[in-house]
What does this fold into?
Amino acid sequence: MPIRQLSEHVVNQIAAGEVVDRPASVAKELIENAIDAGASRIEVDLIEGGLDLLQVRDNGDGIPPNELPLAVSAHATSKVVDVDDLEGIATMGFRGEALASIASVSRLQITSRVPGTPAGGRLVVDHGNTRQVEPCGAPEGTCVEVGGLFARVPARRKFMKTPRGETTRVRRVVRDLAAAHPSVGFTLRSNDRVVLELPGEQTLRDRCVALLGRELGDVLIDVESHRDGVTLSGLIGPPDTARPGATHQIVCLNGRPIVDRSIRHAMREAYRGLIEPSRSPVAALFLGVDPARVDVNVHPAKTEVRLRDERLIFVVVRDAIKAALEGRDLIPTLPTPRPNVPQEPRALFGSGLAASSSQSVSMPRLEQRRSQPIALDGRDVAGDDSDAIEGVSATLRFMQVHDAWLLVEDESGILIVDQHALHERVMFERLLERLQSGDLPSQRLMVPIVVDLDSTAIEGLEKLRDLIQRLGVDLTPMGPGQLALHAAPVLLIERGVDLARFIEDLSQSAAALHEADTETALRDVIDMMACKAAIKAGDRLTQRELQDLLEARDAIERASNCPHGRPTTMRLTLDELERRFGRS
Ligand code: ADP
Ligand code: MG
It folds into this structure.
């Protein structure tokens, strides 16, 4: 075939595929135009998920009738004049191709009246064929109707989900843009049913609560930071509100919703050890940087941006969230909010609880089942537990139930503690601190322990050589596939940990590790040690041990969750108890 210049129609069709690929991206472009036009109210209507009709109406600046043909032609924009303007884009749009692209794959009608002018104009573009502008009466502002989207592009139509699926995507687009512009009122209707209704002039918090879920109203935590020209404000959910997936995260940069892996990673880092890996935190983060420091012109749909200071923004996000979480009471309250699910009536007797619950702090000491006392923090156990219990916590009232749980009285009600999870967190924090300060004592073994390992396991350990040394683990090669362990951390020996198993597990997590990720390696190893050394469910604790554990809890950060992110503690408030017992 000879080389030919493509017709404008074909060029637009190709370009259209880059800018708009489904109703959600059409909605995004049209809403952004309305925001750029200074609208204070935007209404979006969908018929059949926007595949039959998608309409966006605004009360913004409008377009004079004589400019309507320009608005729908390619590379026509009122927002950028020359190349320098691209250096600091403050509007949502600038490429001047959205309306033209949409008009090439649908029947687009645009009706507009500039506020204060007597008459409006209407223009229809039918699959790229522009008709005449007709004068008409119209409300102030602009209304764009998109009919039969992709009806003539079967290849594209094939990729559409059900109308319901497309509605969900449009809803997300509206949600994200609405979060970024809380002063603008939004309505989204689907087949005439209201899906989203947001009044204008909302505070950021009210807007985010309306968008992320009413049940979060009382618990969302403010995040705020200014640093090196980066501003961050927003709201985050406490760890127990984390959910699977990432659809409950909104990230905006200079008023533009974005998807950015590095920022997601920063959130993950900030919540490390507070939520389980399969979940992600609820968050709405709004970043502001000098537009000259961002390149938004990376992707036609502008969902990806290139940040000149990616690392700086990572640090700002991570540190601001960390700071917001620090020192906060993150203990989840029972029952966890689940709207209107009636609680099963619980059997009062016959559960075994009645018998053991008669024991309390003032009762005779629990029989000790273990021969060895527990050094909860790796110290020697201080004396015997008949020692007078001193200090503030002498007033703390607590008990152990079923050798696995602690019940603790506090001002707000009752705390229920998972003894293993809490001790694991305590061990983890102490180990980390000691390792970092070089104060982790190790002990030589009278008789070396021989560990059998295959060659990949031995290679794995080789990767961790430095870390292993810092831990005070002394391993030397013996025969083929054999290592001799000469010294190990006192803490593990004291807690009666199976040292051969420890080395095997160490080699396994080492094998799964990336060469350079020493921070993860350190945490993995410490985590494993903490888990092995921690008291287990089924260990009966003395009063002294209970006391030590609860005191340690107050002394460390992130005591609300074990290192894997599972909760250590739940709270049952007096209010809740009174409500349940009909006393309020
Ligand atoms: P861009 O937004 O990149 O400029 P578009 O194709 O989306 O390109 O829009 C072209 C032009 O049409 C805009 O620059 C703007 O001047 C005008 N326009 C589009 N939508 C609206 C609207 N809702 N209100 C006022 N003007 C609009
Ligand atoms: Mg635009």
About this structure: Residues 338-373, 378-392 have pLDDT under 50 and may be disordered. The CA atoms of residues 477 and 483 lie 5 Å apart.
